[in-house]
């Protein structure tokens, strides 16, 4: 009888061979998770997204491809080529401090105001061109935004806060 294995022992060995170890289960779980983790992409968070307000309670909301202006006693207006005399452009970018200060080249007082506000080397911006004018929205931090409005050679600054 030596050398003979009972059918019960063979069945037990087969069961053990078919039962994965904890290590094998962990490797299988990791392998199953990798493809979905590699394929799944999350859209980057837009730090401008949401509604911002001026001191006069005029509101502006940023979307991925436009800005919606909400002034008192008027319906919200999404900016577009139709609302901008055919000329409309909207982009998100990163601009350095020198480029932002250069938006008001002929207004030394405004350049000084901007120089006091813009202390970092670069900022995320949203740039809007509408008709012959434009606005550059500079994200100072999570709650504060500066709008630099330009119409030809004249510029102005407006502060906004997140609602």
Which helices and strands occur, and which strands form pairs?
Layout: H1 7-18, H2 22-39, E1 50-53, E2 59-62, E3 67-70, E4 77-78, E5 88-96, H3 97-101, H4 108-117, E6 122-130, E7 133-139, E8 144-151, E9 154-162
Antiparallel strand pairs: 1-2, 1-9, 2-3, 3-4, 5-6, 6-7, 7-8, 8-9
Question: Could you walk me through the main structural features you see in this protein, from its secondary elements to its overall organization?
Answer:
The structure is a single chain. The protein is of the alpha+beta class. Helix content is 28%, strand content 34%. It has two domains: 7-39, no CATH class; 50-162, no CATH class. The chain has a nine-stranded antiparallel β-sheet. A hairpin with a 4-residue loop joins strand 7 and strand 8. It is globular and about 35 Å long.
Structural domain tally: 2
Shape: globular
Strand order of the largest sheet: 4-3-2-1-9-8-7-6-5
Tell me the helix content: 25-40%
Instruction: Describe the main β-sheet briefly.
Output: 9 strands, antiparallel
The total of beta strands comes to 9
Contiguous runs where pLDDT drops below 50 for at least 5 residues: 22-43
